[in-house]
Design brief:
With 367 residues, the protein is an alpha/beta fold. It contains 14 helices and 13 strands.
């Protein structure tokens, strides 16, 4: 991997133990590629992330009507594609409840892959990232197999492994509409030489799908990542809520919850504010105990998501009053503050800044 990054792991069976420590180098995970600089989940975004030194690139996986695995942040594509501009699909607009969230839009499970391939990607945050919005319509929607081939080609061209960190989105919902993701995903790994040997981290906000995948991913370079969040209070994994369970993300981040998590996962991935909360003034407060507690349980810690625009940064690191202005040096400083807590990797929308933070360099120029 870039910069010699690696994470020591225990073998299969029993607890899924990671072994973070001073000899490891934090991993830079390109969040939806380099989504601060290119429209998310496009090959342009992934290419930029790889060029800027990401160790892993992240696709979010959803299902199409005919069972293909498509890369989109959500199955609701109203805000990330030009579907609104296609009158032939006006009748597909629908209202659905996804993991308890009532949504109005267009949903991938109502389209065949061929239909989705007639759409083009657009920027999800056009007011924050107008330079990305200027690229609306230029890029195709990408399937998981297409991304695997792209990563394999880039790995060969660059002479280094490029890790993949796919997220299975809304597993319980997709199972409820007859499109379960897990076996499709496992079959895709077996079909491609690159995914049989590349560094692989599989992530989810749900629990049951990771437990299901655990026996099938018993290889040293494949890890399972449990996503969690500290807000809002009382929030539950989608599968737990659907089953009427009582487990919450907050409970999963306690010492007892982390110990249980370590029986099936290698990595806990909290929102970054669960690592260092913000004070009332919006500045970084005192680090929480989460990193130490997770390491004690045998879990690596890789928070999400560092973004370089003022509105996403702690007040310590902003470079002015415009919420959409970039603060590259501020983002590097914020990442370094989190690295000082002992995290083992992190997601960033701008991998060049993440690489600079890890490598101890000054931030790149404001691009």
């Amino acid at each position: 991997m870039a910069g010699g990054a690696m994470l020591a792991l225990g073998g299969g069976g029993g607890a899924a133990r990671a072994a973070p420590g001073p000899a490891t180098r934090p991993l830079v995970l390109g969040h939806r590629g380099a989504s601060a600089l290119r429209p998310e989940h496009t090959l342009a975004s992934y290419a930029k992330a790889i060029a800027d030194g990401a160790d892993f690139i992240e696709p979010d996986l959803v299902a199409t009507k005919d069972g293909a695995l498509l890369i989109r942040h959500e199955n609701n594509i109203a805000e990330t594609t030009d579907v609104r501009a296609h009158p032939e699909f006006a009748g597909r607009r629908a209202q659905k409840t996804i993991d308890g969230d009532r949504q109005l839009g267009w949903f991938t499970e109502d389209f065949t892959l061929a239909e989705l391939k007639t759409l083009r990607a657009i920027e999800r945050l056009p007011r924050v990232r107008p330079q990305n919005a200027a690229l609306d319509g230029q890029f195709d929607l990408v399937t998981w197999p297409e991304m695997i081939d792209f990563a394999a080609a880039e790995s060969l061209a660059r002479g280094r492994s490029i890790g993949l960190v796919p997220e299975l989105k809304h597993s319980t919902y997709f199972a409820s509409v007859g499109l379960p993701l897990e076996d499709r995903f496992l079959a895709s790994l077996a079909q491609h030489d690159y995914t049989r040997r590349c560094p692989l981290i599989v992530q989810s906000f749900e629990v049951g799908n990771l437990r299901y995948l655990r026996p099938w991913l018993a290889r040293p370079d494949a890890r399972l990542m449990q996503l969690v969040t500290g807000t809002p209070a009382g929030l539950q994994p989608g599968d737990v809520a659907a089953a009427g369970g009582r487990l919450t993300y907050a409970g999963m981040m306690t010492p007892a919850g982390l110990a249980e998590m370590a029986t099936y996962a290698h990595i806990v991935a909290p929102d970054m504010r669960s690592i260092i909360p913000l004070g009332p003034n919006g500045r970084l407060g005192k680090p929480a105990r989460l990193v130490a507690d997770a390491h004690r349980a045998g879990l690596a810690v890789m928070p999400w998501t560092f973004r370089p625009e003022n509105q996403f940064l702690a007040a310590d690191f902003r470079n002015g009053g415009d919420p959409a202005s970039r603060s590259p040096a501020g983002s590097v400083a914020e990442i370094r503050a989190c690295l000082a807590t002992g995290i083992d990797g992190f997601f960033t929308d701008d991998p060049a800044l993440g690489r600079a933070a890890v490598d101890g360099r000054m931030s790149p120029a404001n691009r």
